Amino acid sequence: MSARIPLGRNWGRSSFERLEGRRLLSVSGGNVTAAYDLATNTINIKGDHRSNTITIFQDAGEYFLFPDDGTTVNGSDTFVAVPTPGTANLKIDMGNGDDSLTIGFLEADNVSIATGNKADGVDIFFTTVHGDLSIDTGNSGDTVNLDSVDVDGNLLIDTGTSNDSVTFGGPVTVQGNSTVNGGNGVDALHGKDNLVGFGTVRFVNFESRNVMALPPQLIDGLRRADI
Ligand SMILES: [Ca+2]
Ligand SMILES: [Ca+2]
Ligand SMILES: [Ca+2]
Fold first, then answer.
1. Residue 225: pLDDT over 90
2. 191 alpha carbon to ligand 2 midpoint, in Å?
3. Does pLDDT of 5 surpass 50?
4. 213: which residues sit within 8 A by CB, 6+ positions away?
5. Nearest listed ligand to the Cα of residue 158
6. What is the Å distance from ligand 3's center to 166 Cα?
7. In the prediction, which pLDDT does 218 show?
8. Which residues surround ligand 3, an ion (CB under 5 A)?
9. CA 184–ligand 3 middle distance (angstroms)
10. The pTM is what?
11. What is the 180 CA–ligand 3 centroid distance (Å)?
């Protein structure tokens, strides 16, 4: 299948899905749309109410979106390539459902991620964000894992209600300010020593964490109750 799948087209999935009853009964799968907006230099990626699974990476000036577990991207069950003039903003809204988003081996400007209700997983590795990286996983027990990530702007992670887990599995460097908020629930923070922030670093609302000695520059901004 050609990698040059037109973006934003309606591929008539609804009629196809009526023929394939299993998809109607299953909450996994669904379709994710990806469309590049030149005016804002943004790739808008939108999931639906089902449990969508996609992986995004970059190669040779194109962003690639790979669906898995029955999910499609712009109707394709293989992959979609999104060519852009240079590094682009990624605006990702996975919608409700138990979504799984993996981002790796890419460079982007601002990256904003929302995963909505239900239990979601967000994994980001070997990625450089030239602007801000914001991750909002909404309600339910969500998992966020960052490993080998550089952020030139600010980092904002908010895992919302229910019992969530945030892991800095490898080095994460943030030039701006970092706020990692577990929200309501009993939230776990792992590997916080892997986060090196040159601005203020705040870990808030985490009830369990693998406590490591914080470098003095990371103390600034920490609320006493959160240490
Ligand atoms: Ca979804
Ligand atoms: Ca969620
Ligand atoms: Ca929480």
1. no
2. 21
3. no
4. 193
5. 3
6. 10
7. 47
8. 159, 164, 182-183, 185, 187
9. 4
10. 0.81
11. 11
CA dihedral over 215, 127, 152, 35, signed as positive or negative: negative
Distance 145 CA to ligand 3 centre (A): 15
Lowest mean pLDDT among 67-76, 109-118, 130-139, 218-227: 218-227
The pLDDT tens digits for 154-212 are 999 999 999 999 999 999 999 999 999 999 999 999 999 999 999 999 999 998 765 44
CA of 50 to the centre of ligand 3 (A): 22
